Amino acid sequence: MRWLLYPVKCLLAGFIAMQIFFAIQIALWIALDPGSTAFQRAERWRLCTWHWTCAVESRWVPYDKISNNLKRAVLVSEDDIFFQHKGVRVEDMQKAWQKNQQKTQAGNKSKTALRGGSTITQQLAKNLFLSSEQNYLRKGQELIITGLLELMLSKQRLLEIYLNSVEWGEGVFGIGAASQRYYATSPAGLDRDQAAALASALPAPKCFDKQQYCRKGSINYVARQEFILENMDRVALAPYPKSGSGK
Fold first, then answer.
1. pLDDT tens readout for residues 172-210
2. pLDDT at site 112
3. Which regions of the chain are under pLDDT 50?
4. What is the pTM of this model?
5. CA-to-CA distance for 209 and 239, rounded, in angstroms?
6. Residue 203's CB: how many other CB atoms inside 10 A?
7. Fewer beta carbons below 10 Å: N end or C end of the chain?
8. Distance between CA atoms of 12 and 182, rounded to whole angstroms?
9. Contact 177, 168 (CB under 8 A)
10. Phi, psi (5° rounding) for residue 57?
11. Measured distance CA(135)–CA(124) in Å, rounded
12. Contact (CB, 8 A) for 97 and 104
């Protein structure tokens, strides 16, 4: 029995060590800005491989230097009750689970991707640490990281990291690079229309940047932008904690 238990113990020890690593990383981000995310590194490798120079744009912008128009627009687009929930929207996840089960029962067993239901914190957990592979094991790890992020960082800090790391086009990461690329302005200078347009791109940023990545008509950016504009004023923002850390 000892020989049988040994690999189990090793797997458990490895799993615990990984969670401790994630927790230490997140604790450092209370005061330090992340250098890059797992998703950014994967995209950089895809675009650049071994080249020293590469057309990947990213520039960190502090929370208070980002237009409130952009913050509200992104919340409407991605997670309108971000400041109210604890990292997970259970109802949305249940709907995603039901849709996934329906796909499986219909015979689409080759694809195990979970569809929808992710909050901004969950998206951040995935982008910061995990691969683009989508399955239930990865989703479970995503939920653990989501809990650690919500426990250790303030909502404002989470949104700041998200806005500075999310993809906004081919090789464009963060609002600092996106605002300059598309509108030749700073994140603080984004008006309502510009903010809504950028927020509308988040579900499919490569389509927004280069239409050849998507089927014609698969994303209606104009309709999304109009919806975001109509709902921006109903989203409330919380001020950044004076300490700039924790909850």
1. 999 999 999 999 999 999 999 999 999 999 988 888 776
2. 36
3. 109-115, 243-247
4. 0.85
5. 32
6. 14
7. N
8. 47
9. yes
10. -110, 135
11. 17
12. no
pLDDT value of position 114: 35
Helix (H) / strand (E) containing 224: helix 221-231
Q: Tens of pLDDT along 81-104?
A: 999 989 887 776 666 555 655 555
Both tokens of 116, joined, read 């929808």
For residues 95 and 81, give the distance between their C-alpha atoms in angstroms, rounded to a whole number.
Answer: 17
Angle, alpha carbons 200-215-57 (nearest 5°): 50
Looking up tokens 């309108």 gives 80
**3-state percent helix, strand, coil for the chain, nearest multiple of 5:** 60, 0, 35
Q: What are phi and psi of 111, to 5 degrees?
A: -115, 120
Map residue 173 onto helix, strand or coil.
strand
Residue 154: strand, helix, or coil: coil
Extract the tokens encoding 81: 């009750």
